[in-house]
Specification:
By secondary structure, the chain is an alpha+beta fold. It has helices at about 30-35, 60-70, 80-95, 165-180, 225-235, 250, 285-295; strands at about 10-15, 15-20, 40, 45-50, 55, 100-110, 125-130, 140-150, 185-190, 195, 200-205, 210, 240, 255-260, 265-270, 275, 305-310. The protein folds into 2 domains: about 5-130, D-amino Acid Aminotransferase, Chain A, domain 1; about 140-295, D-amino Acid Aminotransferase, Chain A, domain 2 (Alpha-Beta Barrel). Helix 2 packs across helix 3. The structure holds pyridoxal-5'-phosphate.
């Protein structure tokens, strides 16, 4: 299912209450609507048919990131990380999905004033949930380009903060990539180095090692990126190197894949009309993808602590 066909589930948490979707409204003068001043997270919950259980993947780490980032935007996160996890569970219990579900928490500025300042501007925290399958194709291998848009810099709108306004950059990148006939685009920073995909992190495979960009290269420091790093090192004994990546390295790697909550693990088979490796989904990518899907569905005991069960079976 693509994001276009998502249907809202019944309840939304906002202003401290669980309200029916049709009543979850904000003002046309809302600060976040006017200036893009919210922080958000995208979290997935996976339905495991065998366990008849919905597992929320690494909710704690998502809310910890939101808490840290709130300091950048002079925000008060209002609830502890533990409470945010509880609210998520409670909301899912109310909406009761038995399918893979996307959870969208947002910490947002609520002042109804004209003027972008963040002070004297109270915060609210909301969450909605919606069914979501693949955000990008995870099976066939993506054909991507290098965007001619640049990623906004840490000193402009910091990508690490996951600020909603930052995603106007993403919107331009992904839209123009699609209009040019690609599935997505890899984005360079102003200094010409690789950052990440439109809304996901990037890994290259070179000589059996994984390479990904530094956390200081204008990326969102993805929770999936960290998950892949742990799975690669602990389960496959693969070395993971974090360093600056040149554009031309994209053309000479053996394998490439995207990772992110939305993207999950999505193989890339072509970049700027050049085949990645032999142009087929790579073997290491396949292994990591399979490990990732088992992990998020709560099928690997060692990583079950990352999966928050929703239903009291
Ligand atoms: C710009 C960007 N990079 C990377 C990611 C991946 O982050 P995570 O794995 O925490 O979902 C996302 C969100 O999914 C994103 O929006």
């Amino acid at each position: 299912m693509s994001e276009k066909t998502c249907t809202p589930q019944n309840y939304v948490f906002m202003q401290g209450k669980y309200v029916p979707y049709q009543d979850a409204k904000i003002s046309v003068r809302n600060h976040t609507f006017l200036y893009g001043t919210s922080l958000f997270e995208g979290i997935r919950a996976y339905w495991n048919q065998e366990d008849e259980q919905l597992y929320v993947f690494r909710a704690k780490e998502h809310f910890e990131r939101m808490h840290r980032n709130s300091r950048i935007m002079h925000m008060n996160p209002l609830y502890s990380v533990e409470k945010m996890c509880e609210i998520t569970k409670e909301l899912l219990l109310k909406n009761a999905p038995k399918t893979d579900t996307y959870i969208r928490p947002t910490l947002y500025k609520t002042a109804e004033k004209v003027g972008p300042g963040l002070l004297d501007n109270p915060d609210d925290f909301l969450i909605f949930t919606t069914p979501l399958g693949d955000y990008v194709d995870t099976s066939k291998g993506l054909k991507v380009c290098v965007s001619n848009w640049r990623r906004n810099d840490d000193n402009a709108i910091p990508p690490r903060a996951k600020i909603s306004g930052c995603y106007a950059n993403t919107a331009l990148i992904v839209t123009d990539a699609k209009l040019a006939g690609f599935d997505d685009a890899i984005v360079l920073s102003e200094n010409g180095h690789v950052t990440e995909g439109s809304a996901m992190n990037l890994y290259l495979v070179e000589n059996g090692k994984l390479i990904t960009t530094n956390v200081t290269d204008n990326i969102l420091i993805g929770i999936t990126r960290n998950t892949i790093k742990e799975l690669a090192q602990n389960e496959l004994g693969i070395e993971v190197i974090e360093r600056e990546i040149d554009r031309t390295e994209l053309y000479i790697g053996d394998e490439a894949f995207y990772c992110g909550t939305g993207a999950q693990v999505s193989p890339i088979t072509s970049i700027d009309n050049r085949a990645v490796g032999d142009g087929k989904v790579g073997e290491i990518t396949k292994k990591l993808q399979s490990l990732y899907f088992d992990t998020v569905k709560g099928k690997i005991d060692k990583y079950k602590h990352w999966c928050m069960p929703v239903y009291d079976n």
